[in-house]
Specification:
Structural class: alpha/beta
Largest sheet: 7 strands, mixed
Radius of gyration: 21 Å
Helix content: 25-40%
Strand content: 5-15%
Number of domains: 2
CATH architecture of the largest domain: 3-Layer(aba) Sandwich
Number of helices: 15
Distance between the termini: 26 Å
Number of strands: 13
Bound molecules: pyridoxal-5'-phosphate
CATH class of the largest domain: Alpha Beta
Oligomer: single chain
CATH superfamily of the largest domain: Type I PLP-dependent aspartate aminotransferase-like (Major domain)
Shape: globular
Length: 437
Amino acid sequence: MTHVNQDLFDRARTVIPGGVNSPVRAFGSVGGTPRFLVEARGPHVVDAEGREYVDLVASWGPAILGHAHPEVVAAVQAAAARGLSFGASTPSETELAEEIVGRLHAAGDSPLQKVRLVSTGTEATMTAIRLARGATGRDLLVKFAGHYHGHSDGLLAAAGSGLATLSLPGSAGVTEAVASQTLVVPYNDEAALEAVFALHGDQIAAVITEASPANMGVVPPAPGFNAFLIELAHRHGALVIFDEVLTGFRVDPAGYWGLSSRAGDVYQPDLFAFGKVVGGGMPLAALGGRAEIMDLLAPTGPVYQAGTLSGNPVAVAAGLTTLRLATDEVYARLDAVADKISTAASDALSAAGVAHVVQRAGNLFSFVFSAEPAHDYAAVQAQEGWRYPALFHSMLDQGVSLPPSVYEAWFVTAAHDDAAVDRILSALPAAARAAAE
Ligand code: PLP
């Protein structure tokens, strides 16, 4: 038995808070030793002890083609050879913006006309909020409990992802003044949203919502909920920010908005935030919307935003190549793999007598350990979440890497071939039995 991962973790903790550069990586809610990864290729990751795992984390979403796709790596190498960062405009930034805008236009009557590239999803949502405040001249922001939009101050109220994993209501260091400008509403609750608008409607700049939440586990919007919230916000002169950082270009070529539009559920948010897939595994994200709103950004407008590494040429090469390779066949494969794994996991849990519900939005899925589906954060928190660590560790011992928290989606890639899927399926029965104990 080697202790390489444990030794690396111990060493990291002496110079890095908690030994990690993003909290969920510390295995806090599942216990045990985090795996330190040294390589990722196709559907697999390899840890510092040389053990290979079939991966269902996919770098938390970006790797839809699988890890280190040869054409993406080649594009990154070619871009790097031409220069790592120019701090000036490049032709490929416009190509990426055109690709993003074009994808949504191909899916329906898209409100997305202009795009600004940034480096992280946090920046994309943070800037979208500043833009909404600048456009409306109002201060208040409405967010939903359990939705995660990154770690900027005003968005750390009742947030999902790492805050859910650590059971934190918010973050220390966020001032009362900032927190008081974020109104938190239970998700999928039309009456609660109406009540907030009845009280504060003329002061609300924007509602920010995950297009389909996946940071408290997967909790899809109730039929008609996105259209309802957009109509309500617009009636009160507020904007709607559609956070597609996680869903964008993953659940459909045009994200969750595209998936909905193709299904006839037509609605028009004002601003979009994208991240993860759009950067193909490199630090790149984007916000976009109608031209008259986006042109309020500097240098054409009064809302300031900037970035030394915004539109970085190496990151743009990764994003653009990933999107160009993400054909309809890729999305069909993602759906098929998600079907197989979610069905097999559900069958295994049923056979082991574990009450659960598969929660699903396109190819994103997760499980709640309860008899009823969860439609909001309170229901997700009330599940038998204590079952997850045993399931997680059984899978890990059998060579399958799941997200280390019950509050995260399982991410498939198009590189999950039949051999990788079979390895997952054969590990599930024992893991489900472990969850039953
Ligand atoms: N919005 C959503 C829906 C996310 O899932 C995330 C990250 O998980 C973010 C925003 C923040 O993105 P980043 O981690 O790139 O800052």
